[in-house]
Design brief:
heterodimer; A: Spore Coat Polysaccharide Biosynthesis Protein SpsA, Chain A; 2 domains; 8-stranded mixed beta sheet; two-stranded parallel sheet; 18 helices; globular; disordered N terminus; B: mainly alpha; 0% strand
Chain lengths: 437, 235
């Protein structure tokens, strides 16, 4: 991380920026200092968090036996006994052939304050990391079913030994798993900030104590970005602040399906809203970038079979066509008449031949970002009106990659990323107020 | 003969002359007030129009869809010009009322007072109408997008109903504020709104009872048709 952006680490004199519960303060006084910290945000995850706590405990004991480590559960007021499960979860170290653990893992189970959401949970974790002067930290989701002790090493070791500031996860996923990431978040983040981080909103990250302190100093904790877009914010903030970033291969990510995904429009609004808001905040950084560079991946990469995914392409195409019929005036207002005219023939195309080309999709996303920036309509309306377009593009991706392996589908994502990069000058021109070319 | 001439002809003329002389300063004052008032109205209207152009009101109205609505209504002037003209006529009207007041005639004074007392109601009614118009556009756009994302086929119909519902409500409030047939407006609005809700209930209950059953089963019992026809994960 560039020293000009860093605050001098002075945890002794730094005033607490987040109020903590009395019990938590007492625990911090007892523990005083830690080398490693792993945070687990939770809210009613009693079914799954026990496995996550055991994996974290085993990982810390197995790979960092000599380090003083703390596990922090930042809970949002669970009513299903999540915190009790965290307190009860213990690991049979003998069964895992771990015998040389020299310091006992400390657990801090704390409620978080502030607006409800993952952002406030992270803020509490960062504050505890600052108070304990932790060198390397990680956060993992509480609903993970596929986490293993190796994840902890892969998220912490690059920070501890290789002096990276930020470790993004690199998962094996089904080609139709994470389609918002594949069609928007990854290509856009890569084209904007020039770092090829494959899972910018992965949810499981490693980071240095210095970066945690930098995060705490940002004024986003009361905003929607912290509430809904904390994952993309952490990644973007790390890149934009000049932090050293890398990735760690974690294998497959299997977690509980999130119920809010039933409302795709709300989810899209949260992710894109955070992405576009960050574009406004860091425009000086991304306007100056023209290309992208690979980001180092740690860990042993392997292929693994992933569960098949059933996709209803006709339903997605139908949603796009209804959007074309009913939302065309709104799309014209936010994207321009030319783009809507190019989309218009898709109304009558047969489902087999339905395609939104890469270049057109790139311009849709860029125009949406410019419209968001220019406030051409209420932002919530703008973001939600993109849902049928996104479904149309997802249908295109599914149709194009039917019968392809995951590696072949990945090459298709790579092509889209290149299209985003090639068209970046279009975005720069439009952002600067120049008319569409 | 001379006496008749003096009493019958000169006296009324003299009386009229005295009356004219008595009222002449008031007429002169009225002319000055109205003249200056119109000049001020012109200057103020012009200044307001220029100011609104500087703060880019037209651009804002364009984004809010006001310009398009004005165009649909056959209004070719832009919002800055319209507000400037309204300012001009408001000040001119005020000047005319003040000018007429200078005549100091009882019926005109009473008329002027009642007109002045009515102006706040007109302003409040105008604000209600403008706010109702903007709100109806905002709500109908949100409803349209939500209905399309929910896959409801009559999305535009639902959005139109919401738009005109809000406008009708605003119109009823504005008319009530103006005191125009207040009881008729309230009763009319109540009957219309109640009728729409009742018709919608009947239509949904009779025409879409399977849909209602399916929706309630899915919402309350968590069963019925699968919520997600595919298991593609977007995040």
């Amino acid at each position: 991380m560039g020293s000009h952006q860093m605050k001098t680490q002075d945890t002794q004199s730094a005033k607490p920026s987040v109020s903590l519960a009395e019990e938590t303060e007492a625990r911090l006084s007892d523990i005083r200092q830690a080398d490693l910290l792993v945070g687990i945000p939770s809210y009613n995850n009693a079914d799954t968090i026990g496995h996550v706590v055991r994996a974290v405990s085993a990982g810390l004991a197995k790979y960092f036996p000599e380090q003083r480590a703390v596990l922090v559960n930042s809970d949002g007021g669970s009513s299903d006994g999540t915190t009790e499960v965290v307190a009860r979860s213990i690991v049979d170290y003998g069964a895992l052939l771990i015998s040389d653990q020299q310091s006992r893992l400390q657990k801090i189970i704390t409620p978080y304050h502030g607006i409800p959401g993952k952002g406030s949970a992270f803020r509490t974790i960062f504050e505890i990391a600052r108070r304990l002067d932790a060198k390397a930290c990680a956060v993992v989701d509480s609903d993970l079913r596929s986490i293993t002790p190796e994840w902890i090493e892969l998220l912490l070791r690059p920070v501890l030994d290789e002096h990276y500031d930020y470790v993004a996860p690199y998962y094996l996923r089904h080609k139709y798993d994470g389609t918002i990431t594949n069609s928007i978040v990854y290509p856009l983040t890569r084209a904007l900030y020039g770092q090829r981080i494959r899972q910018p909103i992965g949810g499981d990250f490693g980071f240095s104590g210095r970066l945690a302190e930098h995060y705490l100093d940002q004024h986003v904790w009361e905003s929607d970005v912290a509430r809904f877009g904390i994952d993309i914010w952490m990644t973007t903030e790390a890149i934009a602040s000049g932090a050293r970033v890398c990735q760690s291969f974690l294998g497959a990510k299997i977690h509980n399906p999130k119920d809010p995904s039933a409302d795709l429009a709300a989810m899209l609004m949260q992710v894109l809203g955070a992405l576009f808001a960050l574009m406004e905040e860091h425009h000086e950084v991304w306007l100056a970038r023209n290309d992208s560079v690979p980001v180092k991946i740690f860990g042993f990469q392997y292929e693994v079979g992933v569960e098949p995914v059933h996709v209803n392409v006709e339903r997605m195409i139908h949603a796009f066509r209804q959007g074309m019929d009913d939302l065309a005036p709104i799309w014209e207002q936010m994207l321009g008449r030319e783009i809507v005219a190019e989309l218009s023939p898709l109304r009558a195309t047969s489902p087999v031949e339905f395609r939104i080309p890469d270049d057109l999709w790139v311009r849709v996303v860029y125009e949406a970002a410019v419209a968001y920036h220019g406030r051409v309509m209420p932002r919530e309306h703008l973001l939600k009106a993109l849902t049928p377009l996104y479904l149309g593009r997802t249908a295109t991706f599914v149709l194009e990659t039917q019968g392809l392996t995951s590696a072949e589908a990945e090459r298709r994502v790579e092509q889209l990323c290149l299209a985003f990069e090639e068209r970046k000058s279009y975005l720069v021109d439009r952002w600067s107020g120049r008319p569409r070319s | 003969m001379q006496d008749f001439f003096d009493k019958a002809l000169l006296a009324p003329l003299e009386h009229l002359g005295r009356q004219v002389l008595a009222i002449l300063p008031n007429v002169l004052a009225m002319a000055i007030i109205i003249g200056v008032g119109f000049a001020m109205a012109w200057a103020l209207g012009h200044a307001v129009e220029r100011l609104l152009r500087v703060v880019r009101l037209d651009h804002l109205c364009d984004r809010l869809g006001v310009n398009a609505a004005l165009g649909r209504g056959g209004v070719k002037s832009d919002p800055s010009q319209i507000v400037g003209r309204i300012t001009y006529w408001a000040v001119a009207l005020f000047a005319m009322i003040a000018g007429l007041g200078a005549l100091n005639l009882k019926p005109i004074n009473q008329f002027a007072q009642s007109l002045l007392a009515y102006i706040p109601h007109v302003l409040v009614a105008a604000v209600i109408l403008i706010a109702g118009y903007l709100l109806s556009n905002f709500i109908s756009q949100g409803v349209l997008i939500a209905a399309v994302n929910a896959g409801l086929p009559p999305a535009r119909l639902i959005a139109s109903l919401s738009r005109w519902g809000v406008r009708l409500f605003a119109l009823a409030m504005a008319l009530e504020e103006l005191g125009i047939a207040a009881s008729v407006v309230i009763v009319g609005f109540g009957i219309t709104f109640g009728g729409i809700v009742f018709a919608a209930c009947l239509a949904f209950g009779l025409g879409a009872k399977d849909l209602a059953k399916d929706y309630l089963e899915r919402t309350l019992l968590g069963r019925g048709r699968d919520r997600s026809p595919d298991d593609l994960r977007h995040m």
